[in-house]
Specification:
305 residues; alpha/beta; two-stranded antiparallel ribbon; 10 helices; 40% helix
């Protein structure tokens, strides 16, 4: 059995750099070692792990299968140590606690910048780690303890969480200014389905919402292009590659009226609720509990304002 206490962080750092560069000289230079010292340290790591980590080639290094696997473990360990060091630095200067907040793109773009700025102004000794993710992944992260708090769409099942309403937003049809729908004051979703769509990638709650609505209308959503961001959707629509459905407040104001038209949808489901949720089974740290209470009591906004 390998004793993990015999593996030091500097050797792991060298392993990762050597894996990235494929060159011992470059790895030694980036870790401030001589080539001979770096070679000796890698050889010692191989003896400790009882694995050949590299194949020495005339012009560099190539990872073995064992080397690839152990390098991934090394990255994970070094990232954890870096987070620990950051946390220690925060505690040293008076930060009381960290809150892990996961949120979907709608919340990150429309509401959280101002909401978190207001919260942190009153709680300057709290550090918030915000990660953007899809609603289903957010719910899973909170349920499994990877996140303290999650913000997600109302059509994502969250039975394992205690949830409260956070914000409401309005979905609109987004079209180029020269599009046949651009002159409409409002439009039913079913009337948009004859046109090609630009949509978010698979797994997003917004794509699920409009796909379900198309199925309920007995029609097919004709997705021409899928992208990973709201801004990407806007750019594709600007280029005339289709139309899209987005929260109104997620569209940069400079685009509206000049390049794009936002047409309110008449469908009831176009007014969405975003929820903030926490695990039913885990007691929140005080700082996370305070943020959850704050987010669940923010006055809901309407019409994306």
């Amino acid at each position: 059995m390998i004793n993990p206490l015999h593996i030091d962080l500097l050797s792991l750092r060298l392993l990762v750099v050597a894996a990235d560069t494929g060159n011992l000289t470059k790895a030694a230079d980036q870790t401030n070692m001589s080539v001979s010292a770096a070679s000796k340290r890698l050889a010692e790591l191989e003896r400790t792990t009882q694995c050949a980590l590299f194949v020495r080639l005339p012009r560099g290094l190539a990872l073995t299968a064992a080397g690839q696997g152990i390098a991934e473990h090394a990255r994970f360990i070094l990232e954890g140590v870096q987070r620990m060091a950051c946390d220690a630095s925060d505690y040293a200067v008076g930060v009381r606690g960290h809150v892990r907040l996961f949120a979907n793109t709608s919340a990150v773009i429309q509401f959280l910048p101002n909401d978190l700025a207001t919260f942190l102004a009153s709680n300057p000794n709290v550090r918030i780690g915000l990660e953007e993710a899809l609603s289903d992944a957010i719910i899973q992260a909170v349920a499994e303890g990877s996140a303290d708090i999650g913000i997600f769409a109302d059509n994502a099942p969250a039975d394992a969480l205690h949830k409260r309403p956070y914000r409401t937003d309005q979905l609109v049809a987004l079209v180029p200014t020269d599009h046949p729908l651009a002159a409409r004051e409002s439009v039913a979703f079913v009337d948009t389905l004859e046109y090609d769509y630009v949509a978010l990638n698979q797994g997003s709650s917004l794509l699920r919402r409009i796909s379900d609505a198309a199925v309920n209308a007995g029609k097919m959503l004709k997705v021409r292009i899928q992208v990973s961001s709201f801004d990407g959707i806007c750019r594709m629509i600007e280029a005339g590659l289709g139309i899209g459905i987005l929260p109104l407040a997620s569209v940069r104001p400079g685009l509206l009226g000049r390049k794009l038209c936002a047409i309110p949808l008449t469908d009831e489901w176009a007014i969405r609720t975003l929820f903030v949720g926490v695990s039913k089974d885990t007691k929140l740290p005080p700082e996370a509990a305070n943020l959850f209470e704050y987010l669940s009591q923010v006055e809901p906004l309407s019409n994306g304002e």
